[in-house]
Amino acid sequence: MEAQDQNNKLEIPGAKTSLVLGILSISMCYCWGLVGLVLSIIGLSSGVKAISAYAAQPDAYTEGSLKDANSGKTCSIIGLILSVLSLLITIFTWSSSMSLLKSLQGFPGFNF
Asked: Where are the domains of the chain?
Protein backbone atom coordinates (compact mmCIF):
# COMPACT_ATOMS: atom_id res chain seq x y z
CA MET A 1 0.00 0.00 0.00
CA GLU A 2 1.31 3.41 -0.90
CA ALA A 3 1.72 5.76 2.05
CA GLN A 4 1.43 9.52 1.81
CA ASP A 5 3.41 12.08 3.76
CA GLN A 6 2.32 15.55 4.88
CA ASN A 7 2.87 17.10 1.44
CA ASN A 8 0.60 14.58 -0.35
CA LYS A 9 3.60 12.90 -1.93
CA LEU A 10 3.59 9.16 -2.36
CA GLU A 11 6.23 6.60 -1.59
CA ILE A 12 7.71 5.01 -4.69
CA PRO A 13 6.17 1.59 -5.30
CA GLY A 14 8.80 -1.08 -4.83
CA ALA A 15 11.32 1.05 -2.95
CA LYS A 16 10.86 -0.68 0.41
CA THR A 17 10.66 -4.06 -1.34
CA SER A 18 14.01 -3.41 -2.97
CA LEU A 19 15.55 -2.44 0.36
CA VAL A 20 14.22 -5.49 2.21
CA LEU A 21 15.25 -7.90 -0.56
CA GLY A 22 18.69 -6.29 -0.79
CA ILE A 23 19.29 -6.74 2.94
CA LEU A 24 17.99 -10.31 2.81
CA SER A 25 20.20 -11.12 -0.17
CA ILE A 26 23.28 -10.10 1.80
CA SER A 27 22.26 -12.15 4.81
CA MET A 28 21.26 -15.19 2.71
CA CYS A 29 24.20 -15.23 0.31
CA TYR A 30 25.88 -17.98 2.33
CA CYS A 31 23.07 -20.49 1.66
CA TRP A 32 25.12 -22.01 -1.18
CA GLY A 33 24.67 -18.72 -3.04
CA LEU A 34 21.34 -19.65 -4.63
CA VAL A 35 18.94 -18.00 -2.19
CA GLY A 36 20.90 -14.75 -2.10
CA LEU A 37 21.25 -14.79 -5.87
CA VAL A 38 17.50 -14.99 -6.43
CA LEU A 39 16.72 -12.35 -3.79
CA SER A 40 19.34 -9.95 -5.12
CA ILE A 41 18.11 -10.20 -8.70
CA ILE A 42 14.52 -9.52 -7.66
CA GLY A 43 15.63 -6.68 -5.36
CA LEU A 44 17.80 -5.14 -8.05
CA SER A 45 15.01 -5.15 -10.62
CA SER A 46 12.59 -3.69 -8.08
CA GLY A 47 15.06 -0.93 -7.21
CA VAL A 48 15.70 -0.05 -10.85
CA LYS A 49 11.93 0.16 -11.49
CA ALA A 50 11.47 2.38 -8.44
CA ILE A 51 14.27 4.73 -9.48
CA SER A 52 12.91 5.01 -13.01
CA ALA A 53 9.42 5.73 -11.61
CA TYR A 54 10.91 8.55 -9.55
CA ALA A 55 12.79 9.89 -12.58
CA ALA A 56 9.54 10.02 -14.56
CA GLN A 57 7.67 12.01 -11.88
CA PRO A 58 10.01 13.39 -9.23
CA ASP A 59 7.40 15.77 -7.80
CA ALA A 60 4.96 12.96 -7.03
CA TYR A 61 7.25 10.90 -4.78
CA THR A 62 9.15 11.51 -1.56
CA GLU A 63 12.91 11.78 -1.47
CA GLY A 64 13.02 9.32 1.41
CA SER A 65 11.59 6.60 -0.77
CA LEU A 66 14.19 7.43 -3.43
CA LYS A 67 16.87 6.91 -0.79
CA ASP A 68 15.27 3.57 0.09
CA ALA A 69 15.31 2.55 -3.58
CA ASN A 70 18.97 3.57 -3.99
CA SER A 71 19.95 1.77 -0.80
CA GLY A 72 18.03 -1.32 -1.91
CA LYS A 73 19.75 -1.26 -5.28
CA THR A 74 23.16 -0.95 -3.62
CA CYS A 75 22.44 -3.75 -1.14
CA SER A 76 21.18 -5.94 -3.98
CA ILE A 77 24.38 -5.39 -5.97
CA ILE A 78 26.48 -6.27 -2.92
CA GLY A 79 24.30 -9.33 -2.29
CA LEU A 80 24.62 -10.35 -5.94
CA ILE A 81 28.43 -10.19 -5.81
CA LEU A 82 28.60 -12.11 -2.53
CA SER A 83 26.13 -14.72 -3.76
CA VAL A 84 28.04 -15.34 -6.97
CA LEU A 85 31.27 -15.68 -5.01
CA SER A 86 29.60 -18.05 -2.55
CA LEU A 87 28.17 -20.11 -5.41
CA LEU A 88 31.58 -20.35 -7.09
CA ILE A 89 33.23 -21.38 -3.81
CA THR A 90 30.54 -24.03 -3.28
CA ILE A 91 31.01 -25.44 -6.79
CA PHE A 92 34.80 -25.45 -6.38
CA THR A 93 34.57 -27.15 -2.97
CA TRP A 94 32.20 -29.83 -4.22
CA SER A 95 34.29 -30.56 -7.29
CA SER A 96 37.49 -30.72 -5.22
CA SER A 97 35.85 -33.07 -2.74
CA MET A 98 34.64 -35.35 -5.52
CA SER A 99 38.08 -35.50 -7.15
CA LEU A 100 39.69 -36.25 -3.79
CA LEU A 101 37.23 -39.06 -3.15
CA LYS A 102 37.90 -40.52 -6.60
CA SER A 103 41.65 -40.42 -6.02
CA LEU A 104 41.28 -42.20 -2.65
CA GLN A 105 39.24 -45.09 -4.07
CA GLY A 106 42.33 -47.17 -4.85
CA PHE A 107 43.65 -47.12 -1.29
CA PRO A 108 42.71 -49.91 1.12
CA GLY A 109 40.05 -48.85 3.61
CA PHE A 110 38.70 -46.08 1.37
CA ASN A 111 35.95 -47.88 -0.49
CA PHE A 112 33.23 -45.42 -1.43
From this structure: 15-106
